[in-house]
Specification:
heterodimer, A: alpha/beta, 52% helix, globular, B: Rossmann fold, 8-stranded mixed sheet, 10 helices
């Protein structure tokens, strides 16, 4: 994985501290062109991996990228699925069975419900596989070397003790998409334990890591302990703690931690993108130099 | 370890179950649901014991506490049964469809000395708790008026077919969505005691309202407006906010940001005269296990701690939820 990954929250009005800002972002990124422009700024700053949710609008972005193979030759996407709000709102409206009926492709499910579980009755994992395929459709022809499970699903399964389903996700994306599985979580130490228990070694885990301990469940110390002692490939997200930490201080902290393979960030403007990238390079060099001495 | 069981593994039930499953002090002893598919999934991929009959589960698994997350119309009979059997109960919101049923449950829980809580999660959000602290401290002076709002994208097209679209089962924007805001207003400013007019409007739904607009009066004679619409697809998810105007200042608060204006320097520590902005990042503590927001974990933790006698059973108990049911009933009875 590249050291720096570009995220997509800013494009889809995800702002953890301000609804006003989130509406402003919605307005700013109303057109696909605005998203592509920001992506191009990231690429110009040397960031070639875009980590994004499987939001409907990403399909348009993928179309634009496919049309310019020479321009986006080195460009990679790390899809994060599912776009949870789509399903959560559907479950409120249609119930669990209704949501599956709506979103699982093909008529297997139709017969499943109509036939009173006569078909496929014991193989829910194939339903999961169909849903992964549905989410992956939009990325056809684009490099997707790592495919992530969103934190709401990862953590739901973690709490339910369904590590075997996480394992099934990993095996399927490896088999079908020749990709590594990644897991987004708000409970990193617990998740790593669960993944190790089902035989997933040295997993890719994307998780909140920041100086103020925001969304670092358990405690910041528990996270630091894992980073110092365990084998795991960490992508740090929410490093600015939704703006609670000034950029320089935030990046200095994260770059100084062991075992952080990549840093995920989202920024809307060219200046902010360049500033963040420059800060990461600056502190990486500083720590490397200190280590050399 | 507290032995806990769940009745109703739908959206909220599964969310509670995951949080309970990860809780250090909880042993999940059973899950009851009527859906064979849902139980089948648990049987196959989890280690939970599953039951189709909740009474059989209570009998065999012997939980000390039970989470009830079934459609609202079943709350009254099931919760009553559980209380009679001496179980602590966490019920999903709203408490009951009628205020008489709710009153029974409040009295029964008190008589039996059992811990009782209802899943109004806003009270566990750091920004709203801070609003409560500022109001209780009297820093806003005399309260003149408030506006409580919630918007979100639940029903955004003319198509739906589950219990939430059936008024007899507890469906509709008032019971499902607006109840959260009413409960929050009750919690922060005191109970709604009069309703001076209500518009319940459907945009897409055939059998239930998609929006609630109403004028409220509290026991303190403070007046306010409630504006709730679950058919607003400019929101990504439910967004709840409250604005409060007083003689000494004004508060505008949602789940992530608190803006307070104080007219003078007579304000709480860490605040100054004029505008102050605080974010949820300053006002929330990390939880042991995070699923959909700190508040969901915190409310479960509070219930477990109440059973362990570590906290009082005062936030979101049946009595406060029953007051919310009463306000909902007033709103319904004053449709213009």
């Amino acid at each position: 994985m590249e050291r720096i990954l570009y995220g997509d929250n800013q494009f889809f009005a995800v702002n953890h501290v301000s609804e006003e800002k989130s509406r402003a972002q919605s307005i700013k990124f109303k057109s696909d062109d605005a998203i592509i422009k920001a992506l191009n700024h990231a690429i110009a700053a040397g960031v070639n991996t875009f980590m994004c949710t499987t939001h409907d609008r990403i399909a348009n972005i993928c179309d634009i990228i496919r049309k310019r193979p020479e321009k986006y030759e080195d460009f990679k996407i790390y899809p994060c699925m599912p776009y949870a709000h789509k399903y959560a709102n559907a479950v409120t409206e249609l119930g669990i069975a209704g949501t599956l009926r709506e979103y699982v492709p093909g008529n297997i499910l139709g017969s499943l419900f109509k036939g009173g579980m006569a078909y496929l009755s014991k193989d829910y994992l194939s339903i999961m596989e169909l849903m992964i395929d549905a989410e992956m459709k939009m990325f056809k022809g684009i490099q997707t070397p790592v495919i992530f499970l969103q934190n709401v699903i990862t953590d739901l399964l973690l709490g339910l003790g369904m590590g075997n389903v996480l394992k099934a996700f990993q095996e399927y994306v490896e088999r079908k998409y020749n990709a590594e599985a990644g897991f987004i979580t708000m409970n990193m130490p617990k998740l790593l334990n669960a993944l190790e228990q089902v035989g997933i070694k040295n997993p890719i885990i994307c998780t909140s890591i920041n100086k103020v301990g925001f969304r670092m469940s358990g405690s910041k110390e528990a996270y630091q302990h894992v980073l110092e002692t365990k084998k795991v490939r960490i992508i740090a997200m929410q490093v600015l703690a939704a703006g609670a930490i000034p950029p320089q201080e935030a990046i200095e902290y994260v770059c100084g931690l062991p075992n952080i393979e990549s840093i995920l960030f989202g920024a809307s403007s060219k200046d902010n993108i360049n500033e963040t990238v420059a800060l990461i390079h600056e502190y990486d060099q500083k720590y490397q130099l200190m280590e050399a001495i | 370890m507290i032995k806990v069981a769940l009745i109703g593994a739908g959206k909220m039930g599964i969310s509670h179950l995951s949080i309970l499953g990860a809780h250090h002090d909880v042993e999940v002893v059973g899950v009851a649901d009527t859906s064979k598919m849902v139980l089948d999934v648990f049987k196959k991929y989890s280690s939970f014991q599953v039951y189709t009959d909740y009474e059989e589960m209570i009998e065999k698994a012997k939980p000390e506490a039970v989470f009830v997350a079934v459609p609202t119309k079943y709350h009254a009979p099931i919760v009553k049964n559980l209380l009679l059997k001496g179980k602590h109960v966490f019920a999903e919101k709203p408490l009951c469809l009628s205020t008489e049923e709710g009153k029974d449950l409040v009295e029964l829980a008190a008589r039996k000395g059992l811990i009782n809580q209802v899943g109004y999660h806003n009270e566990f959000i750091g920004t709203f708790r801070e609003v409560k602290r500022i109001i209780d401290g009297g820093y806003l002076g005399d309260i003149f008026h408030f506006t409580g709002e919630a918007y979100g994208p639940v029903v955004v097209r003319p198509k739906q077919n589950n219990w939430r679209s059936d008024p007899a089962e507890g469906g509709g924007c008032l019971l499902d969505y607006a109840s959260h805001v009413v409960d929050l207003i009750n919690y922060i400013l005191g109970p709604v005691t009069r309703v001076k007019g209500t518009i319940l409007k459907s945009f897409y739904s055939k059998n239930v309202e998609d929006s609630v607009f109403t004028l409220l009066e509290l026991s303190s004679k403070v007046s306010g407006v409630l504006s709730v619409n679950w058919s607003d697809d400019t929101y990504r998810k439910m967004s709840t906010s409250i604005t409060i105007i007083g003689s000494q200042g004004k508060i505008i608060c949602d789940a992530s940001e608190l803006k307070v204006h104080f007219k003078t320097s007579d304000c709480p520590d860490n605040y100054t005269k004029g505008w102050n902005v605080k974010y949820i990042t300053d006002l929330t503590q990390s939880v042991d296990f995070y699923l959909r927001g700190e508040e969901y974990s915190d409310q479960v933790d509070y219930f477990i701690k109440a059973i362990q006698k570590k906290v009082p059973n005062t936030i979101n108990n049946f009595e406060s939820a029953w007051k919310t049911d009463q306000a909902i009933s007033l709103i319904k009875n004053n449709i213009n």
